[in-house]
Amino acid sequence: xxxxxxxxxxxxxxxxxxxxxxxxxxxxxxxxxxxxxxxxxxxxxxxxxxxxxxxxxxxxxxxxxxxxxxxxxxxxxxxxxxxxxxxxxxxxxxxxxxxxxxxxxxxxxxxxxxxxxxxxxxxxxxxxxxxxxxxxxxxxxxxxxxxxxxxxxxxxxxxxxxxxxxxxxxxxxxxxxxxxxxxxxxxxxxxxxxxxxxxxxxxxxxxxxxxxxxxxxxxxxxxxxxxxxxxxxxxxxxxxxxxxxxxxxxxxxxxxxxxxxxxxxxxxxxxxxxxxxxxxxxxxxxxxxxxxxxxxxxxxxxxxxxxxxx
Length: 310
Description:
The protein has 9 helices and 12 strands. The chain is an alpha+beta fold.
C-alpha cells in the first residue's frame, strides 16, 4: 500500500485515466457503454471529479464522478474500475475520492452498479460484481435500492395504442402538478425518501428538475380521458448519450388499477419511434411490480439490474 499514490488528476492529465491497462468489463458497470473523453468534453466529467490509484506512475485503479453540465457538484459515481489492484487499494481509492467529493446536498454521490439481470447465477459475473461491492462497502457505503433496466428495439414490435386517452401539450405548472399528484403511494425509493425528508411538493419539483435537465421537454404530454379529466402524463426523454428513454410516467391515484399505464407507456414508445428512435430504455425499482409488468407487456426486455449504493 505504501507504494501506491491516490490523487485527483489535474487539467491536461486525462491520459492518466485513459491509459488504464484493462479493457472495460462488457457486462459489469457503465464503463463499456461510455467514453471518458466524450464525458469530459461535454462537462459531465471533470479532472477534479476524477481519481486514480498510481503505482510507479501507472494507473492500477480509477474512479470518476458524473454531473450535469455547469453543475457545481457531481451527481453520481459513474465510473469505478478496481482492475487487478489489491482489494485494499480499491477501498482506499474510494475513501479518498469520497472524502473530498459531495453532491449538491452535501452527501456522498450515489454509486450505481450495473449488472445483467441474472448476475447472481453467473459465477464469473458475480465475482466481478462482488469485487466492486466489497470495495464500496469497505468505503462505508450501503445498498439503498435495486432496480431493473429495460430495453425496447424495433424488432420487439410496437405496443398497441389504446383508445381511451387523448394526449396534449401542457404548461410547466400542469405537468409539475401531474408529477406531484402521482407521487402518492409511489414505489420509488428515491421519491419516497424525498417525500419523507422534504415533502411531496419538493419531491415533485426535484423530479421535474431532473426531467427537464434532459432533452425532450417539447414532447411531454398530459393525458385526458373522454370526459376531459386528467389521467396522467408522459415524459419521454433522451439521456446524455442521445438514447431515447422512458423518463417518467405519471398516473394520478384516482385512475390507478384501470390499465392506463399500458396506454401511457405505449404512447411514449410511439412518440419516440415517430422521431426515429430504434432503441428505447427504461428502469424501475424491483419492488414496483405493476410497472415491471407494464414494461414486459409493451415488449420491453429486462436487460439489466442496478444496485444503488450510498
